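Same chain as my last thread, 404 residues:
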Amino acid sequence: MSRVTIDSKKFLPHQLQWWELPNFIKLLVGGFGSGKTFIAVLRAIYLSYIHRPVPGILISKTYQMLKRTIIPTLNEVINKSGLNVTYHKTDHEVTIHNWNGKFWLASGDDPDSLRGPNLAWAGIDEPFIQKKEVFDIALSRIRAGVGDKREMFLTGTPEELNWGYDLAMSDEVDIGYVVGKTKDNIHLGEDYYKSLSAAYTDEMRAAYLDGEFVNLKQGRAYKAFNRDRHIKHSEGKGEICAGIDFNVDYMTAEVFILGNGWIHFIDEIRLGFSNTFELAEKLRHKYPGIRVFPDPSGSGRRTSANKSDHQILRDAGFTVISKSKAPAVMDRVNAVNSLLIQDRLTIEPGKCEWLVRDFERVVFKSGDLDKTTEPELTHASDGGGYAIDYNFPVRKRTIQNVRV
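reply #2:
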């Protein structure tokens, strides 16, 4: 049977400190690029050896995130270490044949699906954007394994003062936590930290770069917007496009010029108690054949029509561009704020009244955008936000900096 040897001398200081925590629950809170996902995958492999053949589980928020972060990192470790590993894609089961170790990759979007047989350990990547129920169910499954070596580990970036903060501060559970900052990763290029820092608000820098618990979901959503800075005429040349939000009460299209690294809003179409057919006709009359970036959820067939919203737009002659799944609200809001901070988002004077109103008045409520206090708000910024998130996403690059 092969043994696993991990060279801890290559760990970043905060990775090593977290690795050596004696607590049952080990929490690593860190900024983007601080090596959280890599150390989580390495820990999963290590624990599969310690507890062989009793399995464990590593949980991401969604299977899409698994494919984007966990699986590529796992593949790199496997390739560089020469381990004999089988990954069963249907069952999401990882088997390390060198020592008959096993663990599952799972999604937290359906907490009930996590129920099952006893485990020796469980890990959750990005737990603070998941339901506490995911943590509770995973914790309840840790009943097997080798004595006091059983454990729960968490690695993530904080975005709000939720259950994760309460857990970290608790005196009632056996938990230890370490903070890792983006700038402490010596493997990153200097431009990485500087470029992210320049694109973030003070609150975003605290959470996404310094790993501090910050409540980003409070107050104004678009805090970076300023009339004096962002409402101005632009003579830049680019392509006319539109972002679209589908609602019966306020069908909205935010029209903009898309330039090289910037976006300038020039018009909006807003219809009350309407439908996609009417919006498409209005938009086609003024801006025929343009590219549109609608709400991704509009790809599904609606009960009110035999065509999807996206198909209605295509039939009207528009080129529809959309992600396969709607972006997380915070990702979309962060993308907008990032452009505002860098003055790469502007609005033509006297135009887009509802977009300006949204940027000044949309707030967070109970951890989400407030769509009930003033129901006429959020539609314009949602429509524009879908286009911005697609063209200018706030990228979260996975930095792989430790080796087996």
